[in-house]
Amino acid sequence: MRILGLDYGAKTMGVAVSDPLLITAQGLEIIRRDAENKLRRTFARIEQLVSEYEVDTIVLGYPRHMNNDEGIRCEKTKEVAQALERRTGCRVILWDERRTSVEAHRAMAEGHISRERKKALVDRIAAELILQNYLDYLSNS
Question: Structurally, how many domains does the chain consist of?
Answer without folding.
Answer: 1
